[in-house]
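Message: Just now I want nothing more than another pair of eyes on a protein record. I am handing you a single protein, as its sequence and its fold in token form. As I understand it, each token names a local backbone shape. Take your time, and here it is.
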Amino acid sequence: MLETLSLFLGIWLLFLLLAIYYLSQSSDSGVGRFRESVSEHLSAESRAKALLREMLSENQYQQLIKFGYLEISSPTIDNRVYRIPGSGGLVKVYERGCAIMELCLQPAEPLPDGDVVVMHKLMIEGNEQEYLQKANHFAPGIISLRCQHL
């Protein structure tokens, strides 16, 4: 058992050293590009978190942290609530506490999760009808039912 573990660790270390060597020999400086990419991602994430904090009330922010979603009341339809997930997924729509549909609306380019939450919030509050026109509509639960069979 100990011999197998030692062999595995040795092979893993060799692979890691070969990967580092390969990246350091790359004419495009693969390590530099990787470091820059990680830095850009972390910077975008931190800016998204700052924007999210600025755009949400304290209660909304706490709801997002505690439950993983943000609920926005419809500005035009009584008793309608949009439940925006904090980390991707469909926006669930409720009327009088009952799920009536799920919406899919994504930005053309990938964005940090915080920016997507703010996008949904601003679109719903700014022009709910356009938001509903642009979104793909699904029956409540239909996507999750499909995924259970995969």
